[in-house]
Amino acid sequence: GTGVAAEYAKFFNKPLFVYDQERSGWWRWTGDAFTSGPRPAISQPHFTGTGTRFLRDNGREAIAALFARSFG
């Protein structure tokens, strides 16, 4: 599920951001590697959001902050 969706985004050159719950930070795919960077905001009318079935508190907070930045 989640890994396949990320690979499709990479294959079709779509913007790809992931939140790493272990490191408590956002990472962006540059085309060669994931790099830490600014927190993303949803700017397109169509986007995909997918993730783990083991969501932690920091992951919930990251999602809430993403939606607040994007739609608040």
Describe the structure.
- With 72 residues, this protein is α+β, with helices and mostly antiparallel strands.
- It has helices spanning 2-11, 57-71; strands spanning 17-20, 25-29, 34-36.
- It has a three-stranded antiparallel sheet, with no helix packed on it.
- The mean pLDDT is 95.
The count of helical stretches stands at: 2
Count of strand segments: 3
What structural class do helix, strand and pairing data support?
Answer: alpha+beta
Give the C-alpha Rg.
12 Å
Q: How are the strands of the biggest sheet laid out side by side?
A: 1-2-3
Helix content: 25-40%
What spatial form do the alpha-carbon principal axes imply? Answer: globular
The gist of it:
The chain is an alpha+beta fold.
Keywords:
72 residues; alpha+beta; 3-stranded antiparallel β-sheet; 35% helix
Give the topology.
Elements: H1 2-11, E1 17-20, E2 25-29, E3 34-36, H2 57-71
Antiparallel strand pairs: 1-2, 2-3
